[in-house]
Amino acid sequence: MTSIDLNADLGESFGSLRMRNDAAMLDIVTSANIACGFHAGDSLQMSEVTELALKNNVAIGAHPGFNDRRGFGRRRLDNIPDKQLSADLIYQIGALQAIARAKGGQVSQIKLHGALANMVCEDFQLAQLCVRAIAAIDKSLAILVMPGTQLEKAASLEGCPLIREIYADRAYTEDATLVSRTDTGSMIDNPQLAADRMLDVLESGMITSVSGKRIEVRGDSICVHGDNPHAIEMAQTIRERLEKAGIRVEKFTALTEEVLTPGRQGL
After folding, report:
1. Percentage of the chain surpassing pLDDT 90?
2. Count of structural domains within the chain
3. pLDDT of residue 2
4. Are strands 206-208 and 214-216 parallel, antiparallel or unpaired?
């Protein structure tokens, strides 16, 4: 691999609650997934982070999730009517689209947040509902997916552009999904270890699960969570190590057309 996107989930402050330093992250990453006001963020945060992303030539993505500020969108809500969830996704994405257009930019990718993102990896019907809501807005929007999941399958069948994502700061299970945040060892905090893992993935196409099993995992974009206490150092270390290894770090819109081809082989 000669190039890869580096993304972060940002804009997750709201009101007087401040998260990590979004401005510093936007000096490093090439794509930003901006919270859309339901699990975190607000209109001012969305506006400010969008403006900074445009200033830094960073691709703008929407990061919608469950309407659950109290749980930061990380609680599994399985009793939301389909029509409500679809409307919630369209509402959030549409809000960020309006802000981006007002500032001379556009939303180019969608990454589902938290519990919803985990649930669509497992449940094809839920994944299909979310994908169809996104496609109803704009079928050219790229959807970030974990390889080999039900979300990848649903997005591919719908004909949506795909960006396959690997996580620098999260541990993997043997079935190539993420270890629950409630479990010990779910987070990777050491920037050098995270960089080692990502270089290994790009070189071998494999990642080591928490059990020690080597599993196949392919990626077009690396994620560093913006709320990780070591996020800035980790993102900077990963970028420097990748570039030292001769791998270009650039936003996914600059990657080859093959990356965005629906149905491209994942796992």
Report:
1. 71
2. 1
3. 85
4. antiparallel
194, part of any domain: no
Beta strands in the chain (DSSP E): 3-10, 31-35, 59-63, 107-110, 142-145, 162-167, 206-208, 214-216, 221-225, 248-249
Q: How far apart are CA 256 and CA 223, in angstroms?
A: 19
The rounded distance, in Å, linking the Cα atoms of 228 and 20 is 8
In a domain, 25, yes or no: yes
Query: Tokens for 178?
Result: 């993420």
pTM: 0.89
DSSP at 170: B
Give domain status of residue 211, yes or no.
no
Name the maximum alpha-carbon separation found in the chain.
Answer: 49
CATH of the domain at 31: 3.20.20.370
Distance in angstroms (rounded) separating the CA atoms of residues 97 and 62: 8
Report the pLDDT value the prediction gives residue 17, as an integer from 0 to 100: 56
Residues with Cβ within 8 Å of residue 183, at least 6 apart in sequence:
none
Angle between helices 82-102 and 124-137 in degrees, nearest 10: 40
Enclosing domain of residue 133: 3-167+219-226+246-260
